[in-house]
Amino acid sequence: MGKKGDKKNFLKFCTRTIVIVTVLACFASIIATQASLAEKREELHQLEIKTEEIKSQNEEYQNLFNDDQINEYKEKLAIENMNYAYPNEIRFYDTSRN
Question: Residue 98 in 3-state DSSP?
C-alpha cells in the first residue's frame, strides 16, 4: 500500500503544480493584455487627435477652394515658401550671416 499512496501523493503534487502554473500563466496573460490594451487606447487617442487636426486643415483648404481664393493662396505659397517675387519687386536679403 505504500507504493499506491506514494503514487497518489505524487499525482496530487503534479496536478496541483500544473494548476498553479496554469493559473499564474493566465494572470500573466491578463496583465500583459491589459497593458497592451492601455497602450493601444493611447495610440487610438493620438490618432483621433491627429484626425481632428487633419479634418480642420482639410476644411480650411475646402474654404479656400470654394471661395475662389485659390489664386491668393497660390500667390501666398509662392512668395512665402518658394521665395518668388513680382517682376518689379525688389527684395533685400541679409547675407552677413552666411
Answer: coil
**Residue 34 buriedness (CB in 10 A; 0-12 / 13-18 / 19+):** exposed
Cα–Cα dist 66/43, whole Å: 34
- How far apart CA 30 and CA 24 sit, in angstroms, is 10
Determine the distance from the C-alpha atom of residue 34 to the mean position of all C-alpha atoms in its chain, rounded to a whole number.
17
What is the three-state SS of 37-92?
A: HHHHHHHHHHHHHHHHHHHHHHHHHHHHHHCCCHHHHHHHHHHHHCCCCCCCCCCC
Which amino acid makes up residue 97?
Answer: R
For the segment 13-56, what is each residue's pLDDT rounded down to a tens digit? Answer: 999 999 999 999 999 999 999 999 999 999 999 999 999 999 99
Q: Whole-prediction pTM value?
A: 0.51
Asked if pLDDT for residue 2 goes beyond 60, the answer is no
